[in-house]
Each structure stands twice: as structure tokens, then as C-alpha cells.
Design brief:
Layout (H helix, E strand, L loop, with lengths): L7 E5 L4 H12 L3 E6 L9 E4 L5 H15 L4 E4 L14 H29 L2 E6 L11 H21 L4 E8 L5 H10 L3 H10 L9 H11 L11 E4 L4
Parallel strand pairs: 1-2, 1-4, 2-3, 4-5, 5-6, 6-7
Helix pairs in contact: 1-7, 2-3, 3-4
Bound molecules: nicotinamide-adenine-dinucleotide (NAD).
The site of nicotinamide-adenine-dinucleotide has 29 residues, from helix 1, helix 3 and helix 5.
């Protein structure tokens, strides 16, 4: 029997990158999966639902469609994210609002919509995606605030939903090869390969992360093996 047989997972940002790898991991281990995103790579598995996570109506409709088509909802993973990096004196209101809306409002809306079904079903698992940037990162005032906020949301959701047998944890990746880090390399003006090599050199394990390195930890936290883990932030960064 596969680890997620009979389980239903809903992954925001599941159209590419870490979210897509998470969708693939759940699908490979028996789950029925929905990828909710604005756009989808050609090889995304499961049910694809075009969803803007900043829209309450869109998130509620995507969760409702998942419950309707897959027969319930057991697992939520919130990977949808954007960056709008700039130093504080150049950061615009729009940069601030877009990042806060996508990460914080998006995570709030998905968690709120998902918990209704999890509570009804007698339990569930949530994994929210933060970042090492929550600890502070030059040029990411908006993103650092959002990712630190997600850690606070994780702990609060774990406290509120624990009595309903819902585990809520947070994964905070370091440098992962994806469109997001490619975008950063473009902004800084160095080739992506050089950017990745520099990041690998600064990582104790001597390599950068791949989306699958994050997906495997998310899957562990959503599995029965992590049933007594809740409210935790797990840094997945190839080092301390
Ligand atoms: P990515 O850009 O490949 O994936 C992000 C996905 O989120 C995209 O598919 C995008 O379309 C989707 N998205 C953005 N806004 C959305 C919206 N309003 N509604 C629905 N979907 C939306 O980047 P990634 O590296 O796979 O990032 C996944 C998550 O991991 C993000 O939350 C990111 O902040 C976080 N993270 C990434 C890294 C890294 O190094 N790549 C490190 C730490 C944390």
C-alpha cells in the first residue's frame, strides 16, 4: 500500500517548481492531487485548477472542485509565491502589496477553506512554505515579512486546529533551483549557472536544493510518520 493511498492533496503553486514536485510526489505515492496555480507546466500531474490565491472566490471554488471531484480534502500545501525584490528605498507600494497578498492572504484563504473540510473529516495535514529569507535577506523586505508571517501563521493554526487532529507545519527552504531563483539571477545580472554555483559554495552540503529535496520533506510532514509533529518550522537548506 502506498503512503498516501486514499488521501486527497491540494497544492497551491502546483503548476511549476517546488509545488509541481510536491504534486508529483503525492501522486507517485497514491494520493489524488489538485494543482492550483495561475499557469501550469506541460508535465504537471493531477487535476489542474486555474486559481489566483489572492482571490477568496477563486480559492473557495478550487477547494470545492477538489472535494467534489476527489471526494474530500486531507492535505494542503501552500507553495504559491512571488518575489518583487528591491532595497527599502526603492520598494514600491505595489511591490509590498503584491508579495504580502500572494503569500499571506493566499495562505490564509487556502488554510481557511481547507480546514473546514479537514475538521469535518476528522483530521488533516497542512504544510505552509516559508523561506530562509524569513531570517532577513537584503532586498527582500516584503518577502522576508511575508515568510516570517507564514511561520507565525503555522504556529497559530497548529494551536487552533490541533484539537481537530489537524497537523500544521512549515517548511523553510534555502536556495532551490527554480524559476524564482532564475528571476533573482536575472535581476542581479549574473548567469543562472554562476548564481547556482555561488549558492552551492555557500551551502554546507556543497550543492543547491532541487524542488524534489523540498517535496520529500513536505511529504514526510504530511505522512503518518510525522503524526506528533505540529507547529514546527523545518529549515531545508543543506545546512544549519
Ligand atoms: P516558482 O516561481 O517556480 O513557483 C511559484 C508558483 O506560484 C508559480 O507556479 C506561480 O505561478 C505560482 N503563483 C504565483 N502567484 C500566484 C497566485 N496569485 N495564485 C496562484 N499561484 C500563484 O518558485 P518556487 O521556487 O517553486 O517557489 C515555491 C515556493 O517556495 C514559494 O512560496 C517560494 O517563495 C518558496 N521558496 C522558494 C525558494 C527558492 O529558492 N526557489 C526558497 C525558499 C522558499
Amino acid at each position: 500500500m502506498a503512503r498516501f493511498d486514499g488521501k486527497v492533496a491540494f497544492v497551491t503553486g502546483g503548476g511549476r517548481g517546488i509545488g509541481k514536485a510536491t504534486v508529483a510526489r503525492f501522486a507517485a505515492e497514491g494520493a489524488k492531487v489538485t494543482a492550483a496555480d495561475l499557469a501550469f507546466d506541460a508535465d504537471v500531474q493531477g487535476l489542474q485548477v486555474e486559481t489566483d490565491v489572492t482571490s477568496r472566490a477563486a480559492v473557495e471554488a478550487a477547494v470545492a472542485q477538489t472535494v467534489e471531484e476527489h471526494g474530500g480534502l486531507d492535505i494542503l500545501v501552500t507553495c504559491a509565491g512571488i518575489i518583487r525584490d528591491n532595497l527599502v528605498h526603492k520598494l514600491t507600494d505595489d511591490d509590498w502589496d503584491a508579495v504580502i497578498a500572494t503569500h499571506l492572504r493566499g495562505t490564509f484563504l487556502a488554510a481557511q477553506a481547507a480546514q473546514r473540510h479537514m475538521v469535518e473529516r476528522g483530521g488533516g495535514k497542512m504544510v505552509l512554505i516559508s523561506s530562509t529569507s524569513a531570517l532577513g535577506n537584503r532586498g527582500q523586505l516584503n518577502y522576508a515579512a511575508a515568510k516570517a508571517g507564514i511561520q507565525g501563521m503555522t504556529k497559530t493554526l497548529a494551536i487552533e486546529l490541533g484539537r481537530f487532529n489537524v497537523n500544521v507545519n512549515c517548511v523553510a527552504p534555502g536556495f532551490v533551483s527554480s524559476a524564482m531563483t532564475q528571476q533573482t539571477a536575472e535581476r542581479i545580472g549574473i548567469p543562472f549557472e554562476d548564481f547556482q554555483r555561488l549558492a552551492a559554495e555557500q551551502t554546507p552540503l556543497g550543492r543547491i536544493g532541487e524542488p524534489e529535496d523540498i517535496a520529500s520533506v513536505i511529504a514526510f510532514l504530511c505522512s503518518g510518520d510525522a503524526s506528533y509533529v505540529s507547529g514546527q518550522v523545518i529549515y531545508v537548506r543543506g545546512g544549519p
